[in-house]
Design brief:
Blueprint: H1 3-17, H2 28-35, H3 39-51, E1 55-62, E2 65-72, H4 74-79, H5 83-108, E3 110-112, H6 113-119, H7 124-132, H8 147-159, E4 163-165, H9 174-189, H10 196-216, E5 225-227, E6 254-256, E7 261-264, H11 266-285, H12 288-301, E8 330-331, H13 332-337, H14 365-375, H15 383-404, H16 406-409, H17 412-433, E9 440-443, E10 449-451, H18 454-488, H19 493-500, H20 504-517, E11 521-526, E12 536-541, H21 544-572, H22 574-580, H23 583-587, H24 589-592, H25 595-627
Antiparallel strand pairs: 1-2, 3-7, 4-7, 5-6, 8-10, 9-10, 11-12
Length: 628
């Protein structure tokens, strides 16, 4: 299979998908006609592109014949930019073995577990079969030496949802899947409704629920796993009894099902990237140690979060307002149990000094006489109440004294854990009290329960990123005007100038420039009919959704130009790069490469590095605006 064929077919699919008025996605015959390639070559290329999830397809009966339509999956093509981040993240969690698995999965698109095991050459029978047939080819600098190690790492990645099972809707167009589900629901629910409006309302509610369930998938812990077979003649393992009332149960061991077809779960990695971005933001706002505590908190609730938007329990576009919103809570006690011991919390927060209470002095005989004389007076409280208050003071002093001396009777390790828990709670309170609201309090169970409002934090990150772009384009004046309009709403030019303490001629050019870039909008409100320019209010306002969409479009254009520039620079030095990549040149680099060639190659590598760094920065902005 030649790469130019892939690029040619992919380009034709994109052009057919982005044409002004496409009637339908192209069929196989239309692709062959457009690319001028033989049908066999197009079929082979489409198989590879479908396996890599760069092309989706949908087939149905049309005129008595089964017709298949193909469509370019541009979102999956964009996810290839995250390959480096994904491999680095997997290596930090699962080590080098997990990084090799993720790298090969990204290269293959999806693969069956049995074929993946055979391609590593661990099992001799499967390895011979894999060499005879056209199975997946694995590239690894340090291949995994044990099949059990490979299966265990894949099982852990599947449990943590970094790998997911490939379903039928993963290789089909979302629009076609939605249309089929809608038609089935209408046919199923029509007999229960007489009103067409109520029918469509119920269909839309159930359709959203079904699509969400399909996209998230099965969330069971042992999904995709099977019970491990006991060794022949071996005894089954028993679960250890905790108390005398526990029944002795057989311990179940699980292993990955080799018939599964797996792929990389990009939604889960977006959750990890969002957590890293939030930790970085918390470090800028609160401090390094508090950011580390925040990172541990996000890591503990991460297994319960399956995607960034429209997660389980989050209904962004729900119609039923009475449905309870489920927040993922975590208490300070639960966080402290598995807290990273390498994080040093000592001295990270300056606590106020403790108030030293003076012990009450002993009462003398003269004091009792004075109290007796007071009891006879009418203007002072009677003796009974005074005596009761003295007893209460003594009891409270005893309680305080016990609380202060409580740590002395405890084990030193328990005292250390208690103090550490108090410091963790102080950091969580500091994060919750920040204006960005990194955490929100949910109760007092376990020294306080906390949750994360990802929806509001996503809005905050998008707002920060937009203000950074505005400041780069229009300096601090633009950021100042943007914040005023966001805070006050619709304002005319005179009102904005008065609030910003600037002259109108100073802000007029800035407002016009921000409107051209899409950061601000202008509304005309006529005061007379017919409308006249001198009798019209011109109100400036901020449309967050439109501003983010236009900024995202500008970032896409910048990324496209960046990649085009990289390809042009590479094409200029094509022969030099090919020469440097030859095996004989690598073996004797100093002998075969001249001084000028080395200098030119160094210039190319420096430019490529700068362009790739800029591409990753743009990709970060896209994730914040689109995914988070």
């Amino acid at each position: 299979m030649h790469p130019p064929h892939k690029r040619h077919i992919r380009r034709s699919l994109i052009e057919s998908s982005c044409c002004p008025a496409p009637a339908r996605s192209p069929t196989l015959i239309q692709i062959c006609h457009h690319t001028q390639l033989p049908q066999k070559t197009v079929k082979q290329t489409l198989v590879v592109l479908i396996q890599q999830h760069l092309v989706v397809h949908f087939s149905h009966i049309e005129g008595g014949n089964n017709v298949c339509y193909y469509e370019c999956n541009w979102t999956q093509a964009y996810e290839l930019l995250h390959a480096g981040r994904i491999i680095r993240t997997v290596e930090e969690i699962f080590g080098t073995d997990g990084a090799l698995i993720a790298s090969n999965m990204l290269q293959l698109g999806h693969a069956r577990v049995s074929d993946f095991l055979a391609a590593y050459g661990i099992s001799t029978k499967k390895a011979k079969k894999a060499r005879e047939t056209e199975g997946p080819t694995i590239e690894a600098d340090a291949p995994i030496s044990s099949v059990e190690t490979l299966k265990e790492v894949m099982m852990n990645m599947l449990r943590d949802r970094y790998l997911v099972e490939v379903k039928q809707h993963h290789v089909q167009s979302k629009t076609d899947v939605e249309n089929v589900l809608r038609a089935d629901l209408i046919q199923k629910l029509r007999k229960n409704f007489t009103s067409e409006l109520k029918l469509m309302k119920e269909v839309n509610v159930q359709l959203r629920a079904k699509l969400k369930e399909m996209e998230i998938g099965d969330t069971a812990v042992n999904n995709g796993l099977k019970r491990k077979a006991a060794p022949p003649g071996g005894r089954a393992k028993k679960r250890k009894k905790v108390s005398i009332y526990d029944d002795e149960e057989e311990e179940v061991e699980w292993e990955i099902d080799e018939n599964l077809v797996l792929r990389i779960n990009h939604d889960k990695f977006l959750v990890v990237f969002r957590n890293a971005e939030l930790v970085s933001l918390a470090e800028q706002r609160v401090g390094k140690v508090s950011a580390q505590v925040y990172g541990e908190f996000l890591k503990r609730i991460e297994p319960k979060i399956f995607r960034c938007r429209n997660n389980v329990g989050e209904d962004e576009d729900t119609i039923d307002d009475e449905a309870p919103q489920k927040n993922i809570k975590l208490s300070c006690l639960e966080l402290s149990r598995n807290f990273n011991p390498d994080i040093d919390l000592e001295g990270s927060i300056a606590l106020p000094p403790k108030e030293v209470k003076s012990k009450p002095r002993k009462r003398s005989y003269s004091d009792s006489d004075d109290d007796g004389r007071r009891r006879n007076g009418s203007s002072k409280p009677n003796g009974k109440h005074h005596h009761d208050s003295d007893e209460e003071d003594e009891e409270s002093d005893e309680v305080d004294e016990w609380a202060e001396n409580n740590d002395e009777d405890m084990d030193p390790e328990a005292v250390k854990r208690k103090n550490r828990m108090k410091l963790i709670k102080q950091h969580l309170m500091l994060l919750a009290e920040d204006s960005f609201r990194f955490l929100q309090s949910e109760g007092n169970r376990g020294m306080g329960e906390w949750s994360v409002n990802y929806k509001e934090l996503g809005k905050t990150m998008r707002s920060i990123e937009l203000e950074r772009v505005v400041e780069e384009r229009f300096e601090s004046v633009g950021t100042r005007l943007l914040r005023i309009i966001k805070d006050k709403g619709k304002l005319d030019e005179k009102q904005i100038a008065n609030i910003a303490l600037l002259k109108q001629n100073q802000i007029r050019a800035v407002l016009s420039g921000m409107q051209e870039c899409g950061h601000l909008e202008l509304q005309e409100v006529p005061r007379s009919i017919p409308p006249q320019v001198n009798r019209t209010y011109f109100l400036w306002y901020f449309d967050e959704q439109r501003a983010n969409a236009l900024l995202l479009s500008d970032v896409y254009k910048a990324m496209s130009r960046n990649m085009q520039r990289t390809m042009v620079e590479k094409q200029k030095r094509k022969h030099l790069i090919e020469k440097s990549e030859r095996s004989d040149v690598k073996a004797n680099y100093e002998e075969y490469m001249t001084k000028n060639e080395k200098r030119e190659l160094e210039i190319w590598r420096t430019r490529e590095e700068r362009l790739l760094v800029q591409l990753m920065r743009l990709d970060r902005i896209v994730m914040i605006l689109r995914d988070f």
